[in-house]
Amino acid sequence: MTAPLVRRSPTHPAKVVAAVDLTPRMRRITLRTESMRGIELRPAQDVELLLREPSGRRVKRRYTIRHARPDAGELDLDVLLHGSGPGSHWGATARPGDEVEFQGPRGKLELRPAPWHLLVGDESALPAIAAISAALPVDEPALALIEVGDESDHLPVDHADVHWLHRGTASAGGPDLLAAALEDLDLAGLAGLPGRGYLMGESRAMVALRAVLEGRGIAHDAIFVKGYWNVGRPDRLAGRAPSRQPLPDRAHDVSG
Predict the structure, then answer these.
(1) What is the pTM for the complete model shown?
(2) Do residue 193 and residue 132 come from a single domain?
(3) Which domain holds residue 193?
């Protein structure tokens, strides 16, 4: 019997051509690869970098494509620097001339017409929120609620009415700050219109916020949820108890 064909994302060899600091905790790494030249991408697709831990073990980390320039085969990845994981280490140390491989692009999000759009997330979702907002038609207004540590984490989000929520010294990853802001959000002139919602950030917090969006009039099936990280992800080392991990750099889908 012939074995079933397993389709995998192609692996692209790439070179770092630029690296710039956007904020104290966000760094933009520009990759160039001939295999992506001429490939048109959808907003907020991501790639999976193939990295290595200090031990030499290969690991994967996903990052949203903030900008793509198909004519040049270039991708901008905005990397949140937090903790000491391999993704954060790569983002902090990448320099022009460095080589890296990635798989993808991938992503389930498809922008659909709607009278209005509500984008909600924490700083890990900033690249996706900015990319989605920039891609929306000018006649479809967007509201964005973004939880960050403080003002130093702010980045431009074009074509959206942005509400910044400062967490301060509180722990990252809970739904309470965003939930309260959603409850208080002024939707004058939009009530009754079938808007679309996007929840992107800590996995369980975003799932919990889905009910809040539904309470504000957004239909269940009109809400896209994506988890970028988990609070309390079990430690990979055997015998270690789970701990509260603030903003790990690994991303994964909750739903599409």
Answers:
(1) 0.87
(2) yes
(3) 117-229
**Number of Cα atoms under 13 Å in the Cβ half of residue 35:** 12
* Residue 6 per-residue DSSP state: P
Q: Domain tally for the chain?
A: 2
Per-residue model confidence (pLDDT) at position 239: 29
Residue 181 · residue 163 · CB < 8 Å: yes
Distance of CA 145 to the CA centre of its chain: 14
- CATH number of the domain enclosing 29: 2.40.30.10
- Distances in Å between the alpha carbon of 253 and those of 81, 93, 128, 149, 201? 20, 27, 13, 23, 10
Q: How does residue 233 score in pLDDT terms, banded at 50, 70 and 90? A: low
| Tokens matching residue 113 | 């017409």
Same domain, 53 and 121: no
- CB crowding 50-84: b at 16 or more within 10 Å, else e: ebeeeeeeeeebbbbbbbbeeeebbbbbbbbbbee
Taking only the tens place, the pLDDT of each residue in 189-203 is: 887 899 999 999 999
Q: Is the per-residue pLDDT at 234 higher than 90?
A: no
